[in-house]
Specification:
Blueprint lengths: L15 E7 L2 E6 L5 E2 L4 H11 L1 H6 L2 E3 L10 H13 L8 H4 L3 H7 L11 H8 L14 E3 L1 H14 L7 E8 L2 E2 L8 E3 L4 E4 L2 E5 L2 E6 L11 H15 L4 E6 L6 H10 L2 E5 L4 H6 L1 H14 L3 E9 L9 E10 L2 E2 L2 E5 L8 H9 L4 H11 L10 H25 L10 H9 L3 E5 L4 E5 L6 H12 L1
Parallel strand pairs: 6-12, 12-13
Antiparallel strand pairs: 1-2, 3-18, 4-5, 6-10, 7-9, 8-9, 10-11, 13-17, 14-15, 15-16, 15-17, 18-19
Helix pairs in contact: 1-14, 1-16, 3-5, 3-14, 7-8
């Protein structure tokens, strides 16, 4: 090749490729195998979907204004393709240029003609760039969604997961940052996080996701949480009128409007309360006691106290505050929570250590959202990015259904989604079509066959 000449890849006609021998045996590789997939375990996700009827109900949350005579890719196929893709670890629409030919994904998406490819990146991109309002006048973007319907579906799935109403549920609120690297709508710099970002609000009940609301970051962490709580609590009470509810959050949600609403609606709350000099003076004696114990034992020591407290201006009434007066090797570490729960039912130490600190588990749920690419919000409009957040949320619901219904009682009953994906879903398989069968053949060397079988049996019953 002459210097400066452009490099071009020539067509290779070779069919066998020799590698370094293994002792006396030659190693020969060939591209002549049958159709394969790397996601054979996704069949378990399909069974989980059959149990909770997720994808069929997601379709009903969308309006498809396309001409039925000209549709090549059905709405249900595209939604299934996108949600299953996220669950299986494919974060980008570009991935679907190759995935669209995966025979098993065609089964998952409900494609009747499996020899025809699924939707490509351009078609899926038009699905996500959904307009607000009626799509009938838009030439290219004729599919839109109802945020209200998707919000209600998330709560319905939570309610249906319980054969009997629980006596008590805890609704966890938290916000996180989603860094932005483009010029997205409603993009603002956040001083605390130190970058441009969105500030999505999440609400969970245990492991169940009830709300994923995308918000600009130029506002308080609690902004918009009251309307979300109002609709969620109302929907729960229509099904479970007697259930006792506790709202839990960090100090970013310790706001008068939230606490006052809970008090008028018969909903309990426990929120972190940012410390200040006045609160520090309230627990001066317990702090000295904790310091003396630390000097005696050389270990971290904590003393709990509680008192009635009212701010100078922002609170409308006095409220119960529980304090943890802690002394560590590095010095004082006081913490405070405000609550409407009674001392009789929730003594100070029990309330702090068993109820409030348990909210830390929600951080693991948010990490799982990130493992399902909830931070891939690179489209231009806030509405389109909200849809991407919904897709990640629905992928979470699907994998959590597999964990909840298929893996209960196994060693993976509390496994993180990353672990389930790597060990159970990323399962190489041969896919062969016949006139009456779709054969999916796994390797007999697969090390977690017993767990796969246990999940299959649980989902089939």
């Amino acid at each position: 090749m002459q210097r400066g000449a452009a490099f071009s890849m020539t067509e290779c006609n070779q069919t066998a490729f020799l590698f370094e021998a293994h002792f006396s045996r030659r190693i020969v590789a060939q591209f002549d195998g049958v159709a394969m997939t790397t996601d054979g375990g996704a069949l378990l996700l399909r069974e989980a979907d059959r149990k909770i009827r997720l994808l069929k109900r997601v379709v009903r949350c969308f309006t498809d204004a396309r001409d039925p005579q000209r549709i090549e890719h059905e709405l249900g196929e595209m939604l299934a393709q996108r949600i299953y893709g996220l669950a299986l670890g494919y974060e980008d629409l570009n991935d679907h240029e190759e995935l669209r030919r995966d025979p098993l994904l065609a089964v998952m998406a409900g494609r009747r003609e499996m020899t025809e490819p699924l939707a490509g990146k351009s078609t899926l991109n038009r699905l996500e760039l959904v307009p607000a309002g009626s799509p009938f006048e838009d030439r290219y973007h004729k599919v839109t969604y109802s945020a209200e319907a998707l919000d209600a579906l998330l709560v319905d799935l939570f309610l249906e997961a319980h054969p009997e109403p629980p006596e008590e549920i805890v609704l966890d609120l938290d916000a996180t940052d989603t860094p932005l690297h483009g010029q997205q709508e409603a993009r603002f710099f956040h001083g605390y996080y130190g970058h441009y970002c969105y500030l999505p609000l999440y609400i969970f009940a245990g492991d169940h996701l009830l709300c994923a609301r995308l918000r600009p970051s130029n506002q308080d962490a609690s902004a918009g949480s009251l309307p979300e709580l109002e609709r969620i609590v109302a929907q729960i009470r229509r099904r479970w009128p007697q259930v006792r509810m506790i709202v839990r959050g960090d100090s970013g949600f310790c706001r008068e409007e939230l606490m006052a609403w809970c008090e008028t609606q018969g909903v309990y709350y426990v929120f972190g309360f940012a410390r200040n000099p006045r609160l520090r003076r309230k627990i001066a004696r317990p702090l000295r006691q904790a310091q003396r114990e630390h000097q005696r034992t050389g270990k971290a020591e904590r003393v709990f106290a509680e008192f009635s407290y009212r701010t100078d201006k922002s609170w409308s009434r006095s409220r119960r505050v529980v304090a943890k007066a802690e002394h560590l090797e590095k010095g004082e570490n006081p913490r405070f929570v405000v609550t409407s729960l009674s001392t009789e039912r929730w003594p100070a130490q029990t309330l702090y250590e068993q109820l409030y600190c348990a909210r830390g588990e929600m951080e693991n749920r948010i990490k799982e959202q990130l493992s399902l690419f909830s931070d891939r919000l690179s489209t231009e409009t806030l509405r389109a990015n909200q849809l991407r957040l919904y897709f990640s949320s629905l992928a979470y619901v699907l994998v959590h259904a597999l964990r909840r219904l298929g893996l209960t009682g196994t060693e993976w009953a509390t496994a993180q989604i990353d672990t389930i994906r790597l060990r159970l879903l990323k399962l190489a398989a041969e896919v062969r079509l016949t006139a009456r069968r779709i054969w999916v053949r796994f390797s007999r060397a697969y090390p977690w066959k017993n767990l796969f079988v246990a999940a299959w049996q649980a989902l089939r019953c």
